Amino acid sequence: MTSPALSGALRAALTKACQVGPLLSRIVAAIGGGYALAAVASVAALALPMDKPQAVLAGTMASFLVYTGAVVWVFAVRSATRAWLGLLLAAIPLLLAAWPVWNGVTPA
Amino acid sequence: MTANDKKHSKPGKPAARGIRQTMSDLHIWAGLLVGWILYAMFLTGTVSYFKEEISQWMRPEVAHQAAVPDAAEVVPRIAEELQQMVPGSSQWSLGMADARNNVVSAFWRIAKPAKGERGFGSAVFDPQTGQKVSSRETVGGEFFYRFHFQFHYMPVLWARWLASFCAMFMLVAIVSGVITHKKIFVDFFTFRWGKGQRSWLDAHNALSVFGLPFHAMITYTGLVTLMAMTMPWASSAAFKTQAERQAMQSEISAFVPAGKPSGQAVPLAPLGDMVRQAQQRWGADRIGRVTVNNAGDASARVIVTYGDFERVSISPKYMLFEGSTGKLLEVKDQVGAAAETRGVLYALHLGRFGDTTVRWLYFLTSLAGTAMVGTGLVMWTVKRRTKLPHPDKPYFGFWLVERLNIAAIAGLSIGMAAMLWANRLLPLGMEKRSDWEIHWFFILWGASLVWAMLRPAKRAWVELLWAGCAALALLPVVNVLTTDRPLWRSAIDGDWVFTGLELTLLALAALHAWLAVRTWRHQPKRKPQRQAAPRPAANSPAPAARDVDSGATAASAAMAPDLQEARP
């Protein structure tokens, strides 16, 4: 293979990756990121002033709506970066709420 | 994916890709990728609303039950039989016969399971005689119900994860479909018959919007039924001890685990008396299940559970008795607010609370949901066929989607009918007979896939739809030839289970025939001809102009630019 052909192939592959990359990033954000956000939200529900079993059930049931909302968000915004940023932004308060729960009950 | 589509779904292009556009892409791809599994889940779930009736039909040896037997008499009868069959079992449980169910379904823990053996046994009993039902070995309507959320031939856990994964795609497809859909109300009254892709779009819209609250409910509640497995994080963060977990379980399940047996043999107090106490509290026909832990031991417990009919909740509601004395220990009929919410959501999904009318509404709406998935899948190909450069030699992705559609939609009916055929035709004494009923379901479904791949697409559709029609329509005939319960006798005897089921099979056969005829007569419009015609020609549809009246419906919004680009 001659070197111009090689570099041409490389460039084509790179262009392809640049095209597919953001889409892949969004898919990962939607499926993985959305699930993580939903999971954190379900744990954050334990911070609610409720009976524990009720909080667990309420949080878990609501988590699927969080998941759906996250997926819609990921594909609605202008760029993949924004999609991730939005998920992280939403995760911060939830993590703050969930943190004591994880720490509080985890035996040392 | 066509070049156009790629251009479309490509993110990162900043310009004017409005929310309807992005949601339309999301809707299309979320729906397509798992659409075939969703279709199978929807259809098998739909027929599961009549699972008890299907089970009755698959056990023709068990006579039609004119009146519901009294649980207080049935339970002691079967308990006696069971105690001899499985002595030393730490737990056995009897699901009562009711208005829709003419057998008692028992399961028990096997005292000392052999290596590799499952820890549970099960059998069905005749409530009148207390003996094991002497009917053909069959899995009954239970198969469609199980398949609906855990498929077959694969580990149950993986399968349930897969089902949940697909359900999540469905929920996303529903929400994104609604967002795409600006004129949701107007479109419900819009139907452009015989207009190719537009008709598919209108049918898809009407079917979706008509049952939208149901489809959203059934998808979300479906996720809720499996949430303990898919979303365990709150539970695992909150509960660290077995006692806490047990307290949680008692909020959502009437299952009371068997304690350690004391080793001191004490016979069970009369079960009939305990059942009568429950009947006095709830009503004579309200007993759903009777479970006995450690029968014959001093630590025995008897749990009488409320049936889930005529109560829109599956939250635990039971009475707990001391087995040795028959003393009432606990009445459970209340759970917390979130637990009750879960109970209601779960019950809404199962639809067991409903009477016959409600059940039919469930069935029909769910069938509309099945058609929603089916029309969505077909639309993907219809929309793209007009743009194929060589309609006879489509690219691989198109070919694959088209063939999978045929097998998933037309083939599934054949597979399901095949199982009912197998139920009637397999030799009665056959080894693993009920397994073979299931194998035949998959053999015929698989054969449909092969057929769909080998034949020209349109012919495959028509042939398989006719095959499905014949398979369904001939079932009542097979029943006449193989049992002594022909349709006319069932009708005269007032046996609405057999009559209703066979009439439904005939109606479904007619539906398949209609679809076959429509498909056969359908002439797809070809793009090259359209391109050749001058644009303003009277018979050439001008998509962009038409979109004005269709509003920004899901696919048309996504498609309009495609078509514009395709024009010379």
In short:
The complex is a heterodimer of chains A (108) and B (568). With 108 residues, chain A is mainly alpha-helical.
Helix content of chain B: 55-70%
Radius of gyration of chain A: 20 Å
- The counted number of beta strands of chain B is 7
Protein structure class of chain A: mainly alpha
List the helices and strands and how they pair.
The complex is a heterodimer of chains A (108) and B (568).
Chain A: H1 3-44, H2 52-76, H3 80-105
Helix pairs in contact in A: 1-2, 1-3, 2-3
Chain B: H1 3-9, H2 19-33, H3 35-48, H4 51-58, H5 71-85, E1 91-95, E2 104-109, E3 120-125, H6 142-150, H7 156-180, H8 184-188, H9 197-210, H10 212-225, H11 227-230, H12 233-238, H13 242-252, H14 271-282, E4 287-293, E5 301-306, E6 318-322, E7 328-332, H15 337-350, H16 356-385, H17 396-425, H18 433-454, H19 457-473, H20 475-482, H21 487-493, H22 496-521, H23 527-532, H24 543-550, H25 554-566
Polypeptide structure, described:
The complex is a heterodimer of chains A (108) and B (568). By secondary structure, chain A is mainly α. Chain A has one domain (23-105). Helices cover 86% and strands 0% of the residues of chain A. Chain A contains 3 helices and no strands. In chain A, α1 runs antiparallel to α2 (52-76) and α1 (3-44) packs across α3. The longest helix of chain A has 42 residues, at 3-44. Chain A is elongated. The longest helix of chain B is centred in the middle third of the chain and has 30 residues, at 356-385. Chain B is built from 25 helices and 7 strands. Helix content of chain B is 60%, strand content 7%. Chain B is of the alpha+beta class and 568 residues long. Chain B starts with a helix and ends with a helix. Among the domains of chain B are: 71-137 and 232-350, no CATH class; 391-521, no CATH class. Chain B has a 7-stranded antiparallel sheet, with helices on one face. Chain A binds chain B through residues 19, 22-23, 26, 38-40, 42-43, 45-46, 50-61, 63-65, 67-68, 71-72, 75-76, 78-80, 98, 101-102, 105-107, and chain B through 6, 9-12, 14, 19, 22-23, 25-26, 168, 171-172, 175-176, 179, 220, 223-224, 227-228, 231, 233-235, 237-240, 244, 247-248, 251-252, 336-339, 341-342, 345.
